[in-house]
Amino acid sequence: MTRDDDEFERKFAPRTLPEQVAEELGAEIVAGRRKSGERLIELELAQCFGVSRGPIREAIRILERRRLVDFNPRRGAYVRPLSLKSVADLFDVRMALSLLAARTMATAPVESYIDTLARRCAELDAMVDDGDPIAFARVTTRAVRTVAHGSGNELLAEQLADLANQTVWATIWKAPLDYQTREIRREAADLMRSTLDAIRRRDAAAAVSSQRKLLEDDRDRALASLSRIMAAAADFGVFSLEDRGKSELLANSAA
Amino acid sequence: MTRDDDEFERKFAPRTLPEQVAEELGAEIVAGRRKSGERLIELELAQCFGVSRGPIREAIRILERRRLVDFNPRRGAYVRPLSLKSVADLFDVRMALSLLAARTMATAPVESYIDTLARRCAELDAMVDDGDPIAFARVTTRAVRTVAHGSGNELLAEQLADLANQTVWATIWKAPLDYQTREIRREAADLMRSTLDAIRRRDAAAAVSSQRKLLEDDRDRALASLSRIMAAAADFGVFSLEDRGKSELLANSAA
DNA sequence: GGATTGTCGATTGTCAACAATAGATATTCC
DNA sequence: GGAATATCTATTGTTGACAATCGACAATCC
């Protein structure tokens, strides 16, 4: 019996203080309320969140692991500067790992996750017409995670989960252009289903190729919409993304 | 202990207390002195290492990140049970990331690292005949890391470094069969050089294929020698590796 | 007898004070 | 005036004590 990943997460959500702080502070960083490169002072944060420095310290380690802050011993923690390139890099790494997951799952799947993936596909099909791009993106993420677990490679699943956790995603998922049209959703749902079918008949090459197309499209849309958001919000100083190499990046991602 | 030792430690060893503890405790785990599944009690460790619980706490987080311990909030830390499969999984993930690095570096290299890689290749060539398998393995690792950096993808480089850090490697690198014969070293050096050549002429496919061959051979040797060590040492109870699926694994890795 | 609930000890979570350090500022010397 | 050095302050590293929580054992109830 497979457990539902998301209910699992919700059940064990931020119970401990450091995790709560990490969640909150991470949200502030992603939202741009903490500016790029800003120094994070433990005592100040402690007062701000109404806790002692201990939990703050651990929260900073958590955010460091999620690559939202940069930490040097005895030199303090800083909000990590994000660039469009770093987001593109993230997509590249995610793709490499996801394709490994697809190939592995198509070769020697953990049977129970095939059913889970089938359910996700059904969900996606059902959501093609109902027009909520964000919900659709969320289920897509879940399906990708299912493939990771279905590979039976625990390390791989954890690494992919870590990448997804890098809250940069939040910025991207909220991008208004992702999965916005019915056609885009239709194609994504179809690609996920053909991945599922390929896995069922143990056709690793086909599974990899469907998954690659799905993820490439996803990446291109995300980068495009992110750069639009960036341009639009730059004037307000909301986002702290550096835009060096922007056009070059978009050219690359299309290739 | 002499002052030379102290200076050596101060210069090269982990500067901060938690890192030192993590290093030491991690070594104990890898060496099998802490048994698989054993509970790690903070106060006990604190007394054992002569520090307070704070640094111990952070050390445990570090080891959790290196996948050497399993930590559940309010429920304590346990040394993570290692299996041959988990090592094989590690190799799979490393290979996926390294091939991405090779492809990226062959497509858009960070020029300066091409020279570094050339130096590594020269070092390898020079070491083919001198017969130190461990030193050869170390330089190979360094060359792989150079490719990671040469891709210009910082996240990728960090992820690969993390994987290398997972001290499981120590076990593997010390395995007496790795790079033991002149022929094996010759082929590895040649493959690394052909990777370099491919990168120089921007031939991504060739770079990936050389790198794949190199890493596959490396993995097969490592898994084979690790399973031998395991079998040999099992009687002494030194290693705490579980051996489920051993033969299956080796069959897979040959494919 | 088996399951449920209450209590207890061991262990982790949190805190506030103390020590050590890095970076900035002021001072001295040339 | 500029560079090197000394001092000083803000901030992180570390500690020991206190509070909250988990798991186990025992007492109770059916």
| Stretches with pLDDT under 50, minimum 5 residues of chain A | 1-13, 243-255
Order of helices and strands of chain A: HHEHHEEHHHHHHHH
What is the gyration radius of chain A calculated from CA atoms?
19 Å
Distance linking N and C termini of chain A: 41 Å
Give the DSSP E fraction of chain A (strand runs of 2 or more residues): under 5%
Class computed from helices, strands and strand pairing of chain A: mainly alpha
Give the helix proportion of chain A (percent range).
over 70%
Q: How many β-strand runs of chain A?
A: 3
Shape descriptor of chain A? globular
Write out the strand line-up for the largest beta sheet of chain A, numbering strands in chain order: 1-3-2
* SS summary, helix count of chain A: 12
Quaternary state of the chains: homodimer
Largest interface: A-B, 27 and 27 residues
Mean pLDDT of chain A: 84
The major beta sheet of chain A can be summarized as: 3 strands, antiparallel
